[in-house]
Amino acid sequence: MSTSSSTNFSEIIKKARVGKYKLPAFQRKWKWSQKQVMSLFESLRQGYPIGSFLVMTSEEALRLNPRAFYGTGATAESENSMDGLVLDGQQRITAGLAIYYGVENPSGIDYYINVKKIKELIEERKVDLDSDKSIEVFAKSLDVEDGYITTKPQRKNRDHNFYEHWLLWTGFLTKDKADELDNIVDKLDERDKAILRRVVRRHFSPAMEIPVPVITLGKEFDLGAISKIFTTINTTGKLLTPFELVVAILFPENVFLEEEINEFKTKYQYYSNMDKNGEILLQTIALLDSKPPKKSDLPKNMNAVIYNRHRDNAVNSLDNLGKWLTDSIGLGLDSSNKLVPYDAIFAPMAVVFGYIEDKYKNTNKVKARYKLKKWFVGSVLSQRYQEGVHNKQQNDVDEFKAWIDDEKLMPKWLDDVVISPSIKRASSSGAIGKLIKCMINMRHPKDPASDEPIGFKDGLIQTEIHHIFPTKWVKKGLVDFEDEKININVALNTMFLSKQTNGDWLNFDPKTQVEQARKASSNEMMYANFETQFISQSAIEILSKSTKKMSDYESFLNARFKSFADELSQYNFKKVENEEEGFQELDESEE
Question: Phi-psi category of 275—alpha, beta or left, where left has phi over 0 and alpha has psi -120 to 50?
Answer without folding.
Answer: beta
